[in-house]
Design a protein that fits this description.
Elements (H helix, E strand, L loop, with lengths): L17 E5 L3 H12 L3 E5 L3 H20 L5 H9 L1 E3 L11 E4 L5 H11 L8 E4 L6 H5 L8 E6 L8 E6 L5 H13 L3 E5 L7 H17 L5 H12 L5 H8 L1 H15 L8 H8 L12 E2 L6 E2 L2
Helix pairs in contact: 1-2, 7-9, 7-10, 10-11
The protein binds acetoacetyl-coenzyme A.
The site of acetoacetyl-coenzyme A has 19 residues, from helix 2, helix 7 and helix 9.
């Protein structure tokens, strides 16, 4: 149970300049890149220092490509990279006006992160979570500042995808929402507002489609290739649903389906047993080079 609600008042929201990012996985890495190229100072933390090293390498490689394509000047690239500082503990977030949590999609992990984070924060700092499905109200209640807490859900790959979903918890103040909205515009993205219901808008619609693609495979209606080709050429999707599932991560897809299933208590959200099996095998998609496709060779090869 969360602690009893304690009303409190806050200093005005400061201008965001230095932004903390918690988690250096694919989402945290993309968020850090976008923030740095938009002129923000970034502090990035991960439990695994290797993840941060990988994130910095990836960001540098992507910016080098952008310079090569003439989309970014060499000095802009250097300045952006210099704005990203890896940090090793939460005290480094004391200078941040905004902290964005982008850790694993697991409520327990997120709760423990917020518990460790909030004692270090400035009293006027805003906290955002990039959760793709978990209740913002419930996560906000684990902090000392539910009024200054908001869902800020980026899409993968963050540098490419235009959308950010903004989700207010029951306590989120209008000032927090307006500051988040202005911030999303400043980083060149478009926001939509979703109510705080399981998986919000994008994943409420997208994940049941991916889950249905898993059932289509499970029931033998199509193969991995035919399902993906059908949706790419038949519905004009840039990636087939199984390729997209591998891209998102099958562990994340399953976690979102479980949130939908538990939160809406409707059997139509039942996670496909085949999706469960892939996750149990550890075949969770591109990040481990194996999911519905095997990515170890030159070209992805369907695993079924
Ligand atoms: N990270 C960063 N940039 C990337 C990238 C990545 N992983 N993959 C591709 N890009 C960039 C490329 O560098 C390239 O940039 P430039 O135009 O500046 O050169 C651009 O994207 C296009 O790349 P490509 O030409 O190589 O590839 P493409 O045209 O096939 O597009 C794609 C790649 C943008 C990923 C496209 O396949 C796509 O839109 N796929 C669907 C993505 C999607 O649906 N995302 C939402 C997932 S759901 C979600 O995120 C919510 C959640 O909570 C689960």
């Amino acid at each position: 149970m969360p602690a009893p609600y304690q009303p409190r008042s806050y200093p005005p929201i400061p201008e965001f300049r230095t932004i903390g990012v918690i988690g250096a996985g694919q989402m945290g890495t993309g968020i850090a890149q976008v923030l740095a190229t938009s002129g923000f100072e970034v502090r990035i933390l991960d439990v695994d220092p290797r993840a941060i090293a990988r994130a910095l390498e990836e960001i540098e490689a992507r910016l080098v490509r952008q310079v090569a394509k003439g989309k970014l000047a060499e000095n802009e690239k250097r300045a952006a990279l210099a704005r990203i500082r890896p940090v090793s503990d939460y005290s480094a977030f004391a200078e941040c006006e905004l902290v964005i949590e982008a850790a694993t999609e697991n409520e327990e992990i997120k709760r423990s992160i917020f518990k460790s984070l909030v004692p270090h924060l400035r009293p006027d700092a805003v906290v955002a979570t990039n959760t793709s499905s978990i209740s913002i109200t419930r996560l906000a209640a684990t902090t000392d500042r539910p009024e200054r807490f908001i869902g800020m859900h980026f899409m993968n790959p963050v540098p490419v995808m235009k959308l950010v979903e903004l989700i207010r918890g029951i306590a989120t103040e209008e000032d927090t929402y307006q500051a988040a909205k202005a911030f999303v515009e400043k980083i060149g993205k478009v926001s939509v507002t979703a109510e705080d219901f399981p998986a919000f808008i994008v994943n409420r619609i997208l994940l049941p489609m991916i889950n249905e693609a898993c059932y289509t495979l499970y029931e033998g209606v199509g193969t991995v290739e035919s399902i993906d080709t059908a949706m790419k050429l038949g519905a004009n999707h840039p990636m087939g649903p199984l390729e997209l599932a591998d891209f998102i991560g099958l562990d994340t897809c399953l976690a979102i389906m479980q949130v939908l299933h538990d939160g809406l208590a409707d059997s139509k959200y039942r996670p496909c047993p085949l999706l469960v099996k892939y996750v149990e095998a550890g075949w969770i998609g591109r990040k481990v080079k194996r999911g519905f496709y095997d990515y170890r060779g030159e070209r992805p090869v369907p695993t079924r």
